[in-house]
Amino acid sequence: MAYAFGALFAVQAMTFGYVGVIQGRVTFGRSNGPAAWIGIAFVLYAAAIYWLLGVATGHDLTELPAFGVTPCPVTIFTFGMLLLTIRPIPRLLLIIPILWSLIGGSAAILLHVPQDWVLLVSGIVSAALLTGRDQRLASASSR
């Protein structure tokens, strides 16, 4: 399964590159809504708190999942960055992160990896916030 998910994450990276860079459909900006604040919290959690929580719960430093290398903190970071966008995003960008959120988050609970529990929550919360925000943006632009 690791090879399959590795391939999926490579597809996800290419999709982000195509949709975000080539098509220019991912736009970041300043927003004061709940999605932006939760996005900032997810980014901070993935980049710093995740590692600190692992240390605090007794994981050996050499065994800690590293940000930028392992999928769980990167997925939380991805959700945070998507919540910091200011235009509707293609739903295609959510498929693989949500899939990993459900699988990795469930495994974290079963394997007692507390720093990954946020993974499950991040997918559910992000999907709800992005759907609601994008529907509001779409209806506002159609007026």
TrEMBL record:
Q: Name one Pfam family in it.
A: DUF6064
- Work out whether the entry's keyword set contains Transmembrane helix: yes
Q: Which UniProt keywords apply?
A: Membrane, Transmembrane, Transmembrane helix
- Tell me the superkingdom of the source: Bacteria
Q: What stretches pass through the bilayer? A: 6-23, 35-53, 65-85, 92-111
Keyword Lipoprotein listed? The answer is no
Q: Please name the InterPro entries in this protein's record.
A: DUF6064 (IPR045708)
User: Mind telling me what this protein is named?
Assistant: DUF6064 family protein
Identify the species of origin: Bradyrhizobium barranii subsp. barranii
The lineage, from the top, is:
Bacteria, Pseudomonadati, Pseudomonadota, Alphaproteobacteria, Hyphomicrobiales
